[in-house]
């Protein structure tokens, strides 16, 4: 293989990528990068208006982008979403399951112990993360089976490797996503086509709207005790930037990783490798 052939592997011209949770900080950055790589990108979110901030970044890029309402917990809505992608782009090549999150009432603290966590909050977290990955994979994966090829990329978390304090439901749900990634990779390859690949990325600690004031003080901007502990256990000594995901995501979606399926890649600055001593 020569360098020209290798560089062409990262040319996404004519390929379509659907990103659930695409209006979020991480999903939005991935969307912008893929449009820049000439992909046709469908940003799917329950709050599509949040994606409007990305439109100006798409204008000089090589690909196209559409913003579509979607609820990852509603199969009928996701079916309509898939049809919209087909109507606009003609194919379903890649799915990135980036929708997910935690719930304040599923988080322990001094006033709200583990024994007080209500089932409805726990269920919300499990459903959003687990079913919110499985249902889109069912809907979009079926089209990939019909095509004989496709690529599903899930978003797990460092919680799946090292369960964190305070967030038991989120940690367990993300561990489930890692397990599901491996299961679906084997299932698709054995039952349908070895050209349908399923992998995941496991981001470490990235500052997002969801966790910013858990890791930094809202007024001073200084690290909280929890934020400092994370930095102390991250060999690279910083939080991740959304851009830090892009190389791994592009690789896993590209033909450069054609013989890779069923893996979960930590993007964590070495957090998962550090024993603490």
Outline:
With 277 residues, this protein is of the alpha/beta class.
How would you describe this structure to a colleague?
The chain is an alpha/beta fold and about 280 residues long. Helices cover about 40% and strands about 15% of the residues. It contains nine helices and seven strands, in the order αβαβαβαβαβαβαααβ. It has helices spanning about 5-10, 25-35, 55-60, 75-90, 120-145, 170-190, 210-215, 225-230, 245-255; strands at about 15-20, 40-45, 65-70, 95, 150-155, 195-205, 265. The protein has a seven-stranded parallel beta sheet, with helices on both faces. β5, α6 and β6 (about 195-205) form a beta-alpha-beta unit. α4 packs parallel to α5 and α5 (about 120-145) packs parallel to α6. The radius of gyration is 19 Å and the shape is globular. The termini are far apart. About 40% of the residues are buried.
Q: Count every beta strand, where a strand is a DSSP E run of 2 or more residues.
A: 7
The helical percent reads 25-40%
Oligomer: single chain
If strands are numbered along the chain, what order do they take across the biggest sheet? 3-2-1-4-5-6-7
Could you outline the blueprint of secondary structure elements for this entry?
Elements: H1 3-8, E1 16-20, H2 25-36, E2 40-45, H3 55-58, E3 64-69, H4 75-89, E4 94-97, H5 119-147, E5 150-155, H6 168-191, E6 196-203, H7 212-215, H8 225-232, H9 246-253, E7 264-267
Helix pairs in contact: 4-5, 5-6
List keywords for this structure.
277 residues, alpha/beta, seven-stranded parallel sheet, 7 strands, 14% strand
